[in-house]
Design brief:
This protein is an alpha+beta fold and about 200 residues long. The chain has helices at about 1-25, 50-60, 70-75, 125-135, 150-160; strands at about 30-35, 35-45, 80-90, 90-100, 105-115, 140-150, 165-170, 180-185. The chain contains five helices and eight strands, in the order H-E-E-H-H-E-E-E-H-E-H-E-E.
């Protein structure tokens, strides 16, 4: 009897959590204002692929993390991948993509890129904080952020948001550079530093 109750409880909890994740993934496109400018905030789709690749290449140059095939695969996967895009005057100027691990109760920010002409305007801050709140709605426990060790700007941003460095992975990228992994526990409310709005 006790085992049946445990199984029912576990299934009931899992079903409710899955429902919360699915609801959070049903993102409604909208107009948002960031640092006095209006942007279109939407869920990324296959039609955005060429623009996403363009932004990634413009932001990182020779240090791009992914190729078009990786982006295409992620955009096709609606179960555990999620893209948010920002457009200004119909130009895609930034994006963020995450992977959801239900088993680990974790949201992993895998890529974040902003067009050079739109950097230091708070777009990166806005996208990361939006994902943090979305992860809370999914009832996940952690948000993980991965970037190059040389990417000081992104590391500074997530540290100010309460992320803590947890590990460094040597030779993570094709050119041999190490990756750094930061983690934010969602059971702890962190103060969001106002200084980030200019990043």
């Amino acid at each position: 009897m006790l085992n049946k109750f445990k199984e029912w409880y576990r299934q009931n909890i899992n079903d409710r959590k899955e429902q919360r994740i699915n609801e959070a993934l049903e993102f409604k496109n909208r107009i948002v204002e960031i640092s006095g400018m209006k942007y279109f905030l939407g869920k990324g789709s296959m039609t955005d692929l060429p623009d996403i690749v363009k932004v990634d290449q413009a932001a990182y140059g020779s240090k791009v993390k992914w190729g078009p095939k990786r982006f295409k695969s992620g955009l096709k996967n609606q179960n555990d991948r999620f893209y948010l895009i920002l457009r200004h005057a119909d130009e895609l100027v930034g994006f963020i993509c995450i992977m959801i691990s239900r088993k680990k109760s974790c949201c992993h920010i895998e890529n974040l890129a902003i067009m050079p002409g739109f950097q230091k305007r708070g777009l990166g801050y806005f996208l990361v904080t939006t994902i943090i709140e979305r992860a809370r709605e999914m009832d996940l426990r952690r948000v993980v952020f991965t970037c190059r060790k040389s990417n000081d700007r992104s590391q500074s941003l997530v540290r100010d948001l309460g992320f803590v460095l947890v590990e460094e992975e040597p030779n993570y990228y094709d050119d041999g550079e190490a990756a750094v992994n930061y983690q934010l526990h969602l059971d702890q409310r962190n103060y969001l530093a106002a200084s980030n709005f200019g990043r």
